[in-house]
């Protein structure tokens, strides 16, 4: 099994154990799709920042940040993997550089509209393919897929990437996010099939 890799036609991209490839993009989330209010929107970084201050970018400011592109699969814990996604947006690394965490920060909560959250290790946010995405496949995200902004963490299960992301909270102690509090794994590495919290050491 595997998917066709756009850059290497004919070569199969291996998928994590238990996943099957899917080319259609389903809409999957808990709760309603939030309505975008441009004048009230910002992306915030707070908690254990190095300077102790809260940082934020309004919609215009965010769209002036340097952009990048990441091509990756998206692995849902319900066992489908969306193949060959090219995400455009701002690398999470860029945000980490502009609003650095304090040395004692070890984890983050990524917060979305309506209180959805996911916990990550700082190194997951700093990974070279973690991206605050505004588009996929050359098109702007639709509201149901996370417009205006979603976090994509390709090396972890997809619940780790909140659609409608609004904030990063730096933590000096790990705290569990929405699904992590409901029985899902605190790390969520699909290559190790870290699906459920009972698998944690
Ligand atoms: N805010 C928010 N983001 C979320 C979710 C959610 O319930 N709320 N679900 C996650 C899960 S489990 C998956 S598989 C992907 C699905 O993204 P899609 O609807 O664009 O396919 O969004 C993730 N991001
Ligand atoms: Mo998912």
Automatic annotation (TrEMBL):
Segments forming domain Oxidoreductase molybdopterin-binding: 31-179
Compositional bias segments (type: Basic and acidic residues): 1-10
Superkingdom of the organism of origin: Bacteria
Residue ranges of the region described as Disordered: 1-24
Entries under InterPro entries matching the protein: OxRdtase_Mopterin-bd_dom, OxRdtase_Mopterin-bd_sf
PANTHER family xrefs: OXIDOREDUCTASE MOLYBDOPTERIN-BINDING DOMAIN-CONTAINING PROTEIN, PROTEIN-METHIONINE-SULFOXIDE REDUCTASE
Listed name of the protein: Molybdopterin-dependent oxidoreductase
Source organism per UniProt: Actinospica acidithermotolerans
Lineage, broadest ranks: Bacteria, Bacillati, Actinomycetota, Actinomycetes, Catenulisporales
